[in-house]
Design goal:
Helices cover 31% and strands 24% of the residues. The chain is an alpha/beta fold. Bound molecules: flavin-adenine dinucleotide (FAD). The site of flavin-adenine dinucleotide (FAD) has 36 residues, from strand 2, strand 7, strand 15 and helix 8. Flavin-adenine dinucleotide binds next to strand 2, strand 7, strand 15 and helix 8.
């Protein structure tokens, strides 16, 4: 099969969890892929300023692992060698929903890993760095994407290099994995195009994350514990997750003014107020390492770039640049990897076209709508249950929430429903799989006694 990209250069903005998988697939086709990253990339698994969320726990869902394994052969071995902990999602994750007993531990055949976000990113980056036609330029902040004279296509990327000098790099394709889409939005504006329509859910969510050594007698029975809030009356939730270094992340979250604190004693007290005592019991006598880190997440935002009919040729926004999900559900990195698989398929489909870039960007933006819709709709349901959440509510919201709670209840007793639910929550199956299940909806707000 001919490869009509083979004389072209692609530039990727951002070496995060969207940019790295995209670089991997571009490297199969393009003569050169240049990754421009504003941070100096560390040689070890330490957080960096351009990814401030890297200090908080990041769960890799089964669907995300599958996508990464599709892109990087034998990626599970890469993670194990890097020190990640294997995780069986049915046996080693305890989901606590108020009013429901936790699901029984069951072998559902859904495997993934726990680790810090910097370790995962480093493992992916090391694999991408093996590619001979990939050039990493770190310490390089992109300032603009340049257009062809007619404004129809991208032509270059301008950036400040490590020495602060302005460089202009010609580019046939630009992938914007900067997280906030600023280069793409600036390009659209400077070429006279309209902005994308956005769907927004205002959640006003805040995180506080601590790292602990937990004494052996208090160590959680599972590698991950997720305590969900008693929505919509209360918003406090928590996660504990085992890191690669044997320490534990404990993250607490709350909405609106109910911000989890950064002071150690107040943090423990907040944990004690969660609907179950699992997290409090784990951390009350644990040794705290360093500071408690905070992060504010005001809104989930989905940019419908596919609604722009004259979307520029050669421009591809990806991952958080297209959609920032509420981090509570742990979906962003997995969706990003799944989007890279879509890009891989489209690159292959167009490789022998006379003009392989002609429709690539617009087809990509349409194709990822289905990828994004899945996690977006899973998160929208619990988020919009809060009266203060800003966003358009579907007319059947209460009914859908009642049905979702009924599925959670049924999953306790029915291993098949349990498996389907966890597969959907892990982005291994579409939400539609849950719609096909026969359950009796519960009334919203009703506590299911067990
Ligand atoms: C608190 C929190 C917790 C989260 N927890 C989870 C979780 O449990 N599971 C999960 O899957 N996801 C989680 N996420 C989401 C996840 O972090 C993102 O979805 C994911 O990192 C998106 O990848 P990205 O490449 O789009 O952005 P990022 O990974 O943020 O990378 C963007 C990169 O672009 C670089 N950059 C930005 N601007 C420029 C520029 N002008 N020039 C050059 N480089 C630039 C940045 O330095 C950075 O390296 C969480 C997010 C938050 C905020």
């Amino acid at each position: 099969m001919s490869n009509r990209y083979s004389e072209k250069r692609a530039v990727v903005i951002g070496a995060g969890m969207g940019g790295l998988p995209a670089t991997q697939v571009l490297a199969d086709y393009f003569k050169e892929v240049v990754v421009l990253e504003r941070d100096i990339l560390p040689d070890d698994a330490t957080p960096r300023p351009g990814v401030p969320q890297g200090k908080h726990p990041h769960g890799l869902l089964g669907g995300g692992l599958k996508a990464l394994c599709d892109l990087f052969p034998d990626f599970s071995s890469t993670l194990l060698q890097a020190g990640a902990n294997s995780l069986d999602s049915g046996l080693e994750v305890r989901h606590e929903y108020p009013g429901h007993e936790p699901f029984p531990a069951r072998d559902l055949g859904i495997a993934t890993f726990t680790m810090t976000r910097p370790l995962l990113e480093l493992a992916v980056r090391r694999r991408v760095q093996e590619r001979p036609n990939v050039v990493f330029r770190d310490g390089c902040r992109v300032v603009a994407i340049g257009a062809t004279p007619d404004g129809k296509a991208v032509a270059s990327v301008s950036f400040r290099n490590r020495d602060g000098e302005l460089e202009v790099l010609p580019a046939d394709l630009v992938v914007d994995a900067s997280g906030r889409a600023k280069p793409t939005l600036d390009f659209l504006e400077s070429t006279g195009r309209r902005m994308p329509e956005d769907t927004v859910i205002g959640v006003d969510f805040a995180y506080s994350t601590a790292v602990y050594t937990i004494p052996p007698d208090a160590t959680p029975a599972t590698k991950v514990v997720v305590t969900m809030p008693k929505a919509p009356e209360e918003s406090r939730m928590g996660i504990v997750l085992l890191r690669e270094d044997g320490k534990w992340f404990a993250a607490l979250g709350g909405r609106g003014a109910d911000t989890p604190p950064a002071a150690s004693n107040a943090f423990t007290a907040y944990a004690a107020s969660l609907p179950t005592s699992s997290i409090y019991d784990a951390i009350k006598d644990a040794t705290l390492h360093g500071h408690i880190e905070q992060f504010a997440f005001p809104e989930s935002r989905r940019r419908h770039f596919n609604s722009i009919y004259d979307f520029p040729r050669g421009l591809i926004p990806i991952a958080d640049s297209v959609c920032r999900f509420n981090p509570v559900y742990g979906q962003g990195m997995s969706a990003a990897a799944q989007e890279a698989v879509v890009l891989q398929n489209l690159l292959a489909a167009h490789a022998s076209d006379v003009d392989p870039l002609a429709a690539l960007g617009s087809e990509f933006l349409s194709a990822i709508e289905a990828i994004i819709e899945n996690p977006w709709s899973l998160a929208a349901l619990p988020d919009l249950a809060y009266p203060d959440a800003r966003g358009k509510r579907p007319s059947d919201l209460e009914e859908s929430i009642g049905r979702h709670m009924a599925i959670i209840q049924a999953a306790r007793h029915d291993p098949d429903i349990h498996k389907q639910l966890i597969e959907v929550l892990n982005l291994l199956k579409p939400v539609a799989a849950l719609r096909a299940l026969e359950v009796t909806p519960t009334v919203v707000g009703e506590e299911v006694k067990t």
